[in-house]
Amino acid sequence: MIPPEEGRIPAKMSRFGYENRFNPTLGIVALLWTLIIGGLGYWHYHQVSAGFLANARTAARYSIQKDMTYRRWATGHGGIYAPITDNTPPNPYLSHLPERDITTPSGRALTLVNPAYMTRQVYQLGRETFDSRGHITSLNPLRPENAPDNWERQALHAFADGAEERSSLVAEGDAAFLRLMFPFYVEQGCLRCHGSQGYEVGDLIGGISVAIDWTPYQQAMAAIWPGYAIGYGGIWLLGLGFIELHRRRLRAFLRYRKQSTLEQRALLTRLQKLGAHLPGMIYQYRLYPDGRSCVPYASQGIGVIFGVTPDQVKTDASRVMEMVHPDDTAAFKVAIQRSARDKSVWRNEFRVLHSAGHILWVEGYATPEELSDGSILWHGYIQDINDRKQSEQLLEQQQQMLKRRNAALEQFSYTVSHELRTPLVTAENLLGFVQQKLASYQDTTVDKHMGLIRDAARRMNQLLDSLMHMFRVESTPLDDSRVNAAALVKEVIGKLPTRLNNSETVTMQDNLEGCYLTGDPAHFTEIWQQLLDNAVTYSEQKTPPVIEAGVDLVDGQSVFYVRDNGCGIDPRFQERIFGLFDRLDTSNTGSGLGLALVKNIVELYGGRIWVDSAGIGQGSCFYFTLPAAADQDKKN
Amino acid sequence: MLRQPMIILHVEDEPAHAEILRMAFEQCKVKQHLLHVADGGEALDYIYRRADYARPETSPRPDLILLDLHMPKIDGLEVLKTLKGDHHFSSIPIVVLTTSSADSDLKTAYNRHANSYLTKPVDFEKFTKMVDVLCEYWLGMNCPPPATEK
């Protein structure tokens, strides 16, 4: 759908410009991961080292305790006797004892080996045999050779302060040793030798220390480190691999998002371009559950339909909702509610009170969908149907007019045949009777009947004249000139039958001066002539007759009138006087066609004619309008 | 026993037609008494004994009404409606006698319970023949409603 130039990132940019870019977030994550693994490894190393150290310390402790047990055993016996050799000479520090050296009955020379002496010899043996070094020492040694070294001295000082044990790794040349030392307290057996030094039982007399070679432990540890290194390194690499994988996915996501944005922008541009070329507007309309509504999207055509911009209704649609014509609002709202309720297509024709002041017929069509929050979203269009509506209305008007015309024509033909037949019935039948009478020469009513026959013939003639006049007026092609109403009425008054002094009897209101009539002057002349002639005819018996022609402005519309003070019309028959051949009085000489003709002409110009009379003898006033012809022009 | 002459009320605005009908009835074999009024208003005045027709002795109840349709002021159809709508007079047979043969007139007249509808023939022979048949049928053959106060 989207061509490359609009939506895709070029391949080169993807490889060199984007893929290798350092991502700071991921760098921090990798560093953290390294620190965690490093810390864990270090902690593990420390734990293992401490474990080895604890093992060495336990061995040292065990060694000392074993030595002390032997020593205590020896002390318990007050020392033991051993044969005097080069390696075991008599102990000079025991010379004060009476039985330091004894000879067995068989002559073997024995000397007393006290615990200290024994221990020293054992340690010496141990050093020579197992390279484990024990040492008994004191801050106040009897033998100067037993004096403590620096490490032992510090330990002894610590014991004097109450410490129970001292141990540490000590480097000596290339090798390392774990040195451990216990304090040594005076027991009863000790006093035999050390009593002279002033000790009492329970006093701190010195300490016993041992040094364990650390090398075997170091070797054991060295053997397991590579395994740990491989384990931790593997986990570390696994983590880095995971991060790298994530980086690829993140990069793909970012690329996708960037591409989507470009695509969206391209789509929006395309939508706007297309929308701008549509004849109406396309839009989205959203109705929230609480009754609020908005137009999230509208094409620029909203300016043509409503005269507002898309931004003005983006968050609140009330502005355009209020523009719906008041007469159409109810149906408009019902249609929306029905569409929202049934999820059916909304289709409506309504008028818009455009912000520019004019009224516009529009047609809308939209499909609803329900959103997760319960609001309804319509997608649709609204288009201007003003021209179509006007044509429809015009067509409707023309059809109505045609219908009326047809009905009138039908009525006309019946009426004509009836009315024309009436005099014929008279003439034919009277002639028949006359013929019968003439046969006997004895009848005196012949004159009367001949008179009636002549009347019938004259009436027939008059009817035909009127009919011809009517046809002529109604069938002439429409002239289209603009005439001044006052000038026209003046001319008509001048041509009225001179039964009265017309110029005094018939007056014209000045307000006709500013009124103009556009159409066929023959039509307008006919209207005024018929009405004024009738007024004169039915006012003749009044003294003085008063006839008045003029125009009133009612709601901006010109209402013309001809008023007389003549015989008036019974309100019951005021509707009927405009019918074809309708006469209220058979005795008068009218044809019954005049007012019917006037009515037809008035309706031809979209107007209406009616009469107002309080009743018999009260005078009459004929009103009529000519909307398609009349205009008030003050300038002329 | 001989029947009293039938009273016929002719409602007609055209004087010539009234005269023609009068003459045609004069030649009729059946004895009758023909009265003429000039329009619908007068016809109703006669029936309801108003104005000039207030005295019963000069305006006896008609046995038959011949009614024209197209008349000034109150026309025949309106008279028909009034009389057929009034139960005191709805039994009086009303024969419409007019020059109109418009469907709308026929329909309205029958809807308003006209008893018969006749169009006036232009031809003299047909006219007199029609009046003959009218008399023979309505004044001879037809059984009138039971007599009421005259």
Structure description:
- The complex is a heterodimer of chains A (636) and B (150).
- In chain A, 49% of the residues lie in helices and 20% in strands.
- By secondary structure, chain A is α+β, with helices and mostly antiparallel strands.
- Chain A has helices spanning 4-7, 11-18, 24-76, 115-130, 150-160, 191-194, 215-276, 302-305, 318-321, 326-342, 386-440, 446-475, 485-494, 502-505, 521-539, 594-604; strands at residues 80-83, 101-103, 109-113, 133-137, 166-172, 175-185, 204-213, 281-287, 293-298, 346-353, 359-370, 376-384, 481-484, 506-508, 515-519, 547-554, 557-564, 609-612, 620-625, 630-632.
- In chain A, the strands form 5 sheets. Chain A has a 5-stranded antiparallel β-sheet, with helices on both faces.
- In chain A, helix 3 runs antiparallel to helix 7 (215-276).
- Chain A is built from 16 helices and 20 strands.
- By secondary structure, chain B is an alpha/beta fold.
- Chain B has helices spanning 15-26, 40-47, 76-84, 103-111, 124-141, and strands spanning 6-11, 32-37, 64-67, 94-98, 116-119.
- Chain B has a 5-stranded parallel β-sheet with strand order 2-1-3-4-5, with helices on both faces.
- In chain B, helix 2 (40-47) packs parallel to helix 3 (76-84).
- Chain B is globular and about 35 Å long.
- Chain A binds chain B through residues 414-415, 417-419, 421-426, 428-433, 435, 449, 452-453, 455-456, 570, 572-573, 581-586, and chain B through 13-17, 19-20, 23-24, 38-39, 70, 72-73, 98-102, 104-105, 120-125, 127-128.
Write the layout of secondary structure elements.
The complex is a heterodimer of chains A (636) and B (150).
Chain A: H1 4-7, H2 11-18, H3 24-76, E1 80-83, E2 101-103, E3 109-113, H4 115-130, E4 133-137, H5 150-160, E5 166-172, E6 175-185, H6 191-194, E7 204-213, H7 215-276, E8 281-287, E9 293-298, H8 302-305, H9 318-321, H10 326-342, E10 346-353, E11 359-370, E12 376-384, H11 386-440, H12 446-475, E13 481-484, H13 485-494, H14 502-505, E14 506-508, E15 515-519, H15 521-539, E16 547-554, E17 557-564, H16 594-604, E18 609-612, E19 620-625, E20 630-632
Parallel strand pairs in A: 14-16
Antiparallel strand pairs in A: 1-3, 2-3, 4-7, 5-6, 6-7, 8-9, 8-12, 10-11, 11-12, 13-15, 15-20, 16-17, 17-19, 18-19
Helix pairs in contact in A: 3-4, 3-7, 11-12, 12-16, 13-15, 15-16
Chain B: E1 6-11, H1 15-26, E2 32-37, H2 40-47, E3 64-67, H3 76-84, E4 94-98, H4 103-111, E5 116-119, H5 124-141
Parallel strand pairs in B: 1-2, 1-3, 3-4, 4-5
Helix pairs in contact in B: 2-3
